[in-house]
Amino acid sequence: MERELETLFEAQKIETLIMEDERKLLRAPQRLKQMDEELLAVRQKIEKEKEIIDELEKERRKKEKELEVEKEKIKKLEVRLYDVKTNKEYQALLKEIEAAKETNDRTEEDVLVLMEKVEDLKKDYESSHVHLKEIERQSEGERAVIEKEMKSMDEVIARLTQERDNLLSVVSENLRNMYRILKEGRGGIAVTNVKNGVCLGCNMNIPPQLFIEVTKNKQLIQCPSCNRILFFREND
Asked: How far apart are CA 229 and CA 223, in angstroms?
């Protein structure tokens, strides 16, 4: 029995390594997805910045066109000043010209503000492009590393699984079945060590006399609390 218990204990150690690698394999696609989401967020930000720039440029061109129309209107009004017959008409034209010039001044200010905004946004847009290129470069490198690690872990898991199965093949069928059932029901841990009278599977105390028997490794003993198979190995 001692030999079989030790074999189960070694199989459990390999099982733990397999579980750790499987968790890493599960995290890898999550990291790849996270990188894709980060890239998408930056690309969407760039698209939004371009939309805003285009909209402001469109508004600027509209204002400039309005400005040209008003300037032409002022020229025509100024020409009409030479044709008016009365002072009343002359004063009315002057007011109209003055109002048009004020409107033009405001429009020119609007155009300048729009130009400044566009200039600032273009700087941000260019910075975002540089940032995107850097993220793409980093993501490409990290993706290559992750994919290589995933392939390597697949090979390691296959090798460890074979080692575990080889160990389990030499124990009795009853023990193999018990190991499988406990592993499935106890988070992958079917066999655990004991230390200072404590089951390291559930961290619960076991009776002193039972602990003494466990340290002998002469018989199959299960934890009274978690039902895992107990095996004693000092400093392991």
From this structure: 6
Residue type, 27: R
Of 77, 117, 39, the C-alpha closest to 31 is 39
Query: How far is the C-alpha of 168 from the C-alpha of 67, rounded, in Å?
Result: 88
**Taking the domains of the chain in order of start, what are their residue ranges?**
2-171, 175-231
How many CB atoms sit inside 10 A of residue 62's CB?
14
Q: Which distant-in-sequence residues (6+ apart) come within 8 Å of 219 by Cβ?
A: 1, 213
- Entry pTM: 0.59
* DSSP code of residue 202: T
> CA dist 205 to 197, 199, 214, Å?
6, 6, 13
State the architecture of 2-171 in CATH terms: Orthogonal Bundle (1.10)
Please, what is the angle between helix 2-80 and helix 173-185, to 10°?
30
pLDDT tens across 55-71, in order?
999 999 999 999 999 99
Q: Which of 186, 196, 49 is nearest to 125 (CA)?
A: 49
Distances (CA, A) of 9 to 112, 157, 206, 217, 233: 78, 18, 19, 11, 9
